[in-house]
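Lab channel / #folding
Pinned by the channel admin:
"Please post every new chain as: sequence first, then the structure tokens as a reply. Keep commentary short and put observations after the output so the thread stays searchable."

First post following the new format, from NK:
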Amino acid sequence: MVAQSVTRRPPVGWAGAPTPAPAGLTNIVLTWAVMGKVTQRDMLPDQTKGHSRRNVLRVGGLLTLSAAVPSLTGCDPFNREPPPPDPLAPMVNEALALSAAYRDAATTHPTLAGRLTPITDAHAAHAAELARITKVALPSATPTASTPADSDATLTALREREQAAGESATRACLAAPAERAALLASIAAARASHLEALQ
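Reply from TO:
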């Protein structure tokens, strides 16, 4: 706060001559206080500081909540059980194992490759389609199989595996809903034709 003084002089008349002033009022000195520039921060210090404190508390609360969220992501408030595995998922590995068995047999006995290679490809295609509808990821590594040294023993082993696989495909077809029954029926029919090729 700054004090200022102003000297009030006598008034001037129309002709420029000083107008007589009443006695005792020749020179009057007026003094008043001049306030400095007042800002909103100076006028409302508590309110401004209050906002600042609230902002800090709010940010701190958000950080605490965000740190706690990851620990809650694995918690199911309804305590629901995970869905059961797809009943056709085992058929994916079954088809892959059959394809590997035929592929190894064709490699071990080149004279049988002409009969076995188409069956190898058919089982691989079945595995890919089954994996698609069951949403099962195909393994990156192909399964391995052991093949008898004798070609006749090899064909016998393949017929036994093909017979068992055909029966499992038939059972799955009978128990499957309509949208899957057509695929399973085609797989069962293909496996029956493979038995004929192995005779």
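NK: The two ends are 115 Å apart (CA to CA).
TO: also worth noting, The beta strands are 2-8, 28-34.
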